[in-house]
Fold this protein.
Amino acid sequence: MRLTDMHTYSVLPDDINPLCVPRHVAVIMDGNGRWANQRGLPRIAGHRQGARVLKDLLCCCKDWGIGALTAYAFSTENWRRPTTEVDFLMVLFEKMLKKELMAMHKEGVRVRFIGDLSALSPALQREMSRAVEETANNTAIDFNVAVNYGSRSEIATACQQIAQKVEKGDMAASDVTEHTIAEHLYTRGSDPDLLIRTSGEQRLSNFLLWQLAYTEMVFTNAFWPDFDRAQFHQTLLTYQARDRRFGNAKDAISLQKAEEKTALTA
Ligand code: FPP
């Protein structure tokens, strides 16, 4: 991204309705390897540039009044990649955390990690805990990073925890609701309004399967390392052109809104 672009997009663009900005954006950052290949670079160069893009997107989301950004950084399946690539990613996470923590804290970012962190190196786990603890009281934006994350395993673990409570007599099986399950997931009931997947792939790859039930999805052909503020702007325009009905009928929503308006003015 050029500096001029950064400047142009430091405030919410005029054609984006500030009242309908997604509260929570999730991203599947795909295409790092292909971006690097196209330039004759090693795959890790794509991940390095991808991390820079993620950092700028976080600043952009904060600047534009978005309350949460959730990024899929490493899936439970990504361990199958060559050891050199996995090792590079782990070192990149640790380095980025060390380097960016102060800046994120100053900007009011609350950092969280979702996934099974127990499989990560003790050093990385320590950096993660430090980031979570230091930023716990920040309120400008939530930044959730999914590392060693798999949605099916997340749901299975939630079911185990609930089953244990039932077994111990702490709750009745008939009291288990959708809300109970949502509260036992890493995301604790915060569902994305918008999911973006880059690189032309159109699948969820075991990411937030429960949480994306009513999420608008935008798939773009850009490789992740090219996903700049201009691309994000276009994605928000696409999002705002969508008609979110949550299973309701369009007429019913208009009627409901009219009734709410009447109730407010009565
Ligand atoms: C998928 O592209 C990308 C990943 C598996 C890694 C994503 C990680 C980052 C962008 C770094 C984030 C950094 C921090 C600090 C959270 P791919 O490698 O599958 O690309 P390809 O499909 O073109 O091969």
Q: What stands out?
A: The domain at 18-265 is CATH 3.40.1180.10 (Undecaprenyl pyrophosphate synthetase). The first strand starts at residue 24 and ends at 28. Strands lie at 24-28, 68-75, 109-114, 141-149, 194-197, 216-219. Residues 83-106 form the longest helix (24 residues).
